[in-house]
Amino acid sequence: MAVFLLFHFSIQIAIPVLPLFIEEVEILKQGLASTTGLMFAVSGATASISAVAIGYLSDRIGHKRVLIVNLLIAGLMWAAHALARSIPQLLVVRIVFGFAAGGNLPTMNALVGKLTTKETYGQAYGLMASMTSLGMTLGPLAGASWPPT
């Protein structure tokens, strides 16, 4: 449950912060909204591609192992955001982040399926959906409230 919550929290926390970060990294006279949209789009596109590939890989070498590696790479990419000093650098970070993050959801869901009985699937997946929603709610709230004023 904590992984579902924290994973979605970490993705959503960037929503209110990323435009400000882009503006700080590179002063844009125009196109801030388009550049921000591009950053989210490349992450989403690469996540879509990697979800299939990493789902297949995790079936072969183990869900837990793949999840740990993906979470580690995604965490490193969050740190790499702070090191980006240009839009192209940030774009590369968002692409790699998207690949790592995209494989997490199918792998986490597969683990839930393996760790629960058929009689409790609905309850388990309902609880995971609640944790997902909570993370998607708290992430932007946390991102919008930092730094404290």
Briefly say what this structure is:
The protein is mainly alpha-helical. The chain has seven helices and no strands.
Q: What average pLDDT do the residues reach? A: 90
Number of strands: 0
Radius of gyration: 16 Å
Class from helix and strand fractions: mainly alpha
The CA-CA distance between the termini, in Å, is 32 Å
For the largest beta-sheet, the strand count, sense and barrel status come to: none
Quickly count the helices.
7
Helix proportion of residues, in percent?
over 70%
The outline comes out as globular
Low-confidence stretches: none
Q: Give me the strand/helix succession.
A: HHHHHHH
Q: Which percent band covers the strand fraction?
A: under 5%
Would you give an account of this structure?
The chain has 149 residues and is mainly alpha-helical. It has seven helices and no strands. Helix 3 packs antiparallel against helix 4 and helix 4 packs antiparallel against helix 5. The radius of gyration is 16 Å and the shape is globular. The two termini are 32 Å apart.
Secondary structure: elements and pairs:
Blueprint: H1 2-12, H2 14-25, H3 32-61, H4 63-83, H5 87-102, H6 104-115, H7 121-144
Helix pairs in contact: 1-7, 2-3, 2-7, 3-4, 3-5, 3-6, 4-5, 4-6
Name a few traits of the molecule.
single chain; 149 residues; mainly alpha; 85% helix
